[in-house]
Structure to design on (869 residues):
């Protein structure tokens, strides 16, 4: 047999036939010829023994290429070195998420949604290869083994062996089984091991291709001047100076503003700067975020829509020995992904091809089809690697795809790259909504929590979007997720919501509602435990009273163990805080060691324990928990988008919108709970617990609870 | 106007506006796309290249300023430090989205050329100018340490 252990670049080169960086920066990912064995929509095996997995959940950095490919390789009994992954094309019939029913990536669902389908795909392909070998060798399929990419039969007098690639020509008349037998966890050889991350080499040597890197023949690069305030409208513009800028080819009005088309990015930016535009600010959001915060805070006192109601809160609060109240304020936040929004479209007469970091392919495809007036099948989407998303690249209103389509529509057939500058991205809205929580807690004479009230005031993410149907009884679940169904014994508890209005566009931001609800609930609970004279870890353990209490208990006990929790005072001016929060099906507890240095909190170390079901790739889980808590810590420490009086955004770039740097990142230790349960989310669950863990440490350190995020005012 | 400089060992003469940031010359005129745009104002480090031996931000470097100089991008970086850093980056699995990592790698290579036997504090200080929104910072530190150790012949 051929012993072929290709590296990924060699695979790319052989499969694409040609890589010419100057002319075609796409290394043939989008168009592959001659993959002869296609047992299903997810797997292609070549005669030269490469197994390509078409990954339907976008690789945003969270590791879908590696995770989903591992599931296939496991059931296929492939050699990891022969595996290769790429993003699947947009095709809702073939690549709908088993959870959403459309093709898309979000809510930390890629792994749970793929757990059965990708393994079934691998197992079916294996069955075909075995059957092909059985026919060729004239032996019973049951006697054939497959291990590390080698199909073998050991006879009395002969050893027969073949690679997958060698069997490819023999698979033609073999029908894949509809219901292949899957392995049991004790048979796993790849799942649960740290197989090497499949995209690590190309992301370590600069060869990974993102949509910003795509070049097409005759392509123009486009920058768009958009309204300076949210809700403002274009009145008129003068493009004479812009058109006189070297490199600028044309200027067009599009629904979102004025588009400047140029030979290159720099010329497009310069041409845009030269536009003279009159905007109508009637109807624009002109309140400052401070004003909005005041209005939100007032609304939180009387939040009208009840999201959860247990026992009799009013009576319990009235008869409590002590009632404590607190208000927590959360700012608008920018996703601030390192690659700003960008994408390429190539329009011909009745079809269009996109290269973009699409995260919601079905919606993007339908949006483009509607804009161009063509059927969705005339829209091809090449989903590219993205320079981060954190929620930004999946939008309920498909605004980026719409704008890119309108740019092509306005200028006619041709290729166009739309690039948002960092400033466009940061001042352009789609923020984590500004939010206020108003909390009340009632304690009895023994310090037990007898009443709990959590009122949330925030803007709805789903209202006025295609997802509006998911708003039930006036409650947008994403506004209150993580505040209801708490795992603690709270016999009298009410969660209520005031849905606020503003023309500032808001969007899910890594961990969505949990980004504020985890802070409000876990910090307030911690205050009540302290007031009641309880240990912060044991107090939580004693309160656990949910169906899944054992898994909450598991992570909390584990984190207390690895951090050697002895209470909030860690000595040497360091205080500790703890938090426990379930999100996206996964359970995470954290302990943070915090001191104050140069008037800022310094986070020395964070211990995390996570239960996300079976750990498919522990190294990636560790990376997602560390990165997720880093993302949450950055926001809790420094991040805030403010609207000034009049409605202008004050922060346009990283110089003013501070995000966490290397020196501010704590040491991180992650413990993963061993489990055979089906996998749950991991891209987001690491984010929510860090802010309350640090907030609780700060209270232990200073005696003051941080009531307003971020901790460091700027 | 014509500007002449060496890129990854090859002398190039280009007709470009001398005010045009080197970043866009590298990415669009020369089609070397490993160098990334992140902020345009020297805050994030995604555009880091090495100019005459010094790591610099190409997004705020006018093309006219590199006349007759030697520019090295991620596509052309060579030598024991470069090999050690890229190997460590892959082994440690630093990258998540990967977008900032070219700049991180260029900064790390330049740093290890100057500081062959760094302390942990040296590493943090050297890498502090490069933002990573995925917060891969702990693995960045581990990978630089691993690269430094391998250059010193330590495990």
């Amino acid at each position: 047999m051929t012993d072929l252990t290709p590296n990924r670049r060699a695979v790319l080169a052989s499969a694409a036939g040609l890589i010419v960086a100057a002319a075609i920066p796409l290394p043939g990912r989008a168009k592959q010829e001659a993959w002869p064995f296609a047992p299903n929509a997810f797997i292609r095996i070549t005669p030269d023994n490469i197994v390509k997995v078409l990954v339907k959940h976008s690789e945003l950095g969270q590791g879908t290429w590696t995770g989903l490919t591992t599931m296939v390789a496991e059931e296929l009994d492939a050699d990891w070195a022969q595996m290769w992954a790429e993003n699947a094309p947009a095709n809702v019939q073939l690549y709908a998420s088993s959870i959403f029913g459309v093709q898309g990536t979000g809510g930390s669902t890629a792994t749970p949604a793929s757990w059965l389908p990708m393994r079934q795909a691998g197992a079916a392909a294996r069955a075909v290869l075995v059957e092909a070998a059985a026919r060729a060798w004239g032996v019973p399929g049951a006697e054939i083994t497959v291990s590390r990419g080698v199909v073998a039969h050991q006879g009395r007098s002969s050893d027969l062996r073949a690679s997958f690639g060698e069997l490819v020509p023999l698979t033609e008349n073999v029908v894949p089984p509809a219901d292949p037998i899957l392995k049991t966890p004790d048979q796993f050889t790849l799942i649960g091991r740290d197989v090497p991350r499949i995209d690590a080499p190309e992301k370590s040597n600069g060869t990974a291709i993102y949509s910003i890197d795509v070049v097409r023949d005759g392509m123009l690069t486009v920058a768009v001047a958009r309204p300076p305030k949210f809700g403002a409208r274009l009145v008129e513009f003068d493009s004479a100076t812009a058109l006189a800028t070297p490199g600028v080819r044309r200027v067009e009005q599009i629904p979102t503003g004025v588009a400047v088309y140029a030979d290159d990015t720099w010329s497009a930016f310069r041409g845009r700067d030269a536009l003279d535009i009159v905007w109508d600010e009637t109807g624009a959001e002109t309140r400052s975020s401070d004003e909005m915060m005041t209005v939100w805070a007032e609304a939180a006192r009387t939040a009208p829509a009840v999201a959860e109601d247990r026992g009799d809160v009013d009576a319990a609060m009235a008869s409590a020995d002590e009632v404590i109240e607190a208000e927590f304020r959360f700012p608008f936040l920018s996703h601030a992904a390192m690659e700003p929004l960008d994408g390429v479209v190539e329009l011909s007469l009745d079809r269009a091809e996109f290269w973009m970091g699409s995260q919601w392919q079905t919606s993007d495809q339908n949006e483009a089809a509607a804009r161009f007036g063509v059927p969705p099948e005339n829209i091809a989407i090449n989903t590219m690697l993205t320079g981060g998303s954190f929620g930004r690249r999946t939008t309920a209103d498909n605004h980026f795809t719409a704008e890119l389509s309108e740019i092509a529509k306005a200028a006619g057939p041709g290729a166009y790259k739309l690039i948002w500058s960092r400033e466009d991205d940061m001042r352009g809205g789609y923020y984590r909504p500004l939010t206020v929580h108003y909390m009340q807690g009632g304690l009895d004479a023994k310090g037990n929590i007898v009443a709990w009230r959590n009122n949330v005031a925030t803007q709805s993410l789903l209202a006025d979007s295609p997802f509006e149907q998911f708003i039930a009884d006036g409650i947008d679940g994403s506004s209150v997720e993580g505040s209801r169904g708490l795992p603690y014994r709270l016999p009298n508890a009410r969660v209520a919501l005031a849905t606020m209005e503003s023309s500032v566009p808001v969007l899910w931001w890594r961990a969505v509602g949990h980004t504020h609800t985890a802070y409000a609930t876990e910090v307030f609970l911690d205050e009540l435990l302290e007031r009641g004279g309880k240990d912060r870890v044991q107090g939580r353990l004693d309160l656990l009273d949910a169906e899944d209490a054992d898994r909450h208990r598991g992570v909390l006990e584990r984190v207390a163990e690895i951090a050697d929790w002895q209470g909030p005072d860690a000595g040497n001016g360091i205080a500790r805080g703890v938090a426990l929060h379930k999100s996206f099906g996964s359970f995470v507890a954290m302990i943070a060691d915090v001191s104050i240095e140069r008037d800022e909190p310094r986070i020395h170390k964070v211990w995390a324990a996570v239960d996300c079901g079976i750990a498919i790739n522990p190294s990636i889980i560790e990376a997602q928990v560390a990165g997720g808590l880093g993302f949450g810590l950055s926001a809790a420490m420094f991040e805030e988008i403010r609207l000034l009086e009049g409605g202008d955004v004050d922060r346009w770039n990283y110089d003013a919108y501070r995000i966490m740097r290397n020196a501010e990142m704590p040491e991180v230790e992650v413990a993963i709970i061993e489990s055979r349960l089906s996998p749950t989310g991991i891209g987001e669950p690491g984010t929510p617990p860090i802010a309350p863990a640090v907030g609780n440490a700060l209270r232990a350190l200073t005696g003051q609870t941080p009531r307003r995020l971020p901790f460091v005012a700027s | 106007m014509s500007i002449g400089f060496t890129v990854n060992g090859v002398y190039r003469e280009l007709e470009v506006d001398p005010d045009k940031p080197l970043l866009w010359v590298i990415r669009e005129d020369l089609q070397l796309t490993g160098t990334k745009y992140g902020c345009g104002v020297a805050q994030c480090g995604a555009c880091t290249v090495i100019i005459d031996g010094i790591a610099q931000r190409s997004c705020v470097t006018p093309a006219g300023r590199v006349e007759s100089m030697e520019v090295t991008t991620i596509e052309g970086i060579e030598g024991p430090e470069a090999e050690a850093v890229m190997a460590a980056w892959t082994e440690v699995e630093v990258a998540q989205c990967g977008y900032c990592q070219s700049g991180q790698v260029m900064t790390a290579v330049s740093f290890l050329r100057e500081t062959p036997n760094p302390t942990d504090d040296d590493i943090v200080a050297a890498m502090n100018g490069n933002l990573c929104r995925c917060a891969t910072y702990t693995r960045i530190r581990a990978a630089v340490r691993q690269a430094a150790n391998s250059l010193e012949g330590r495990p």
The radius of gyration of chain A is 27 Å.
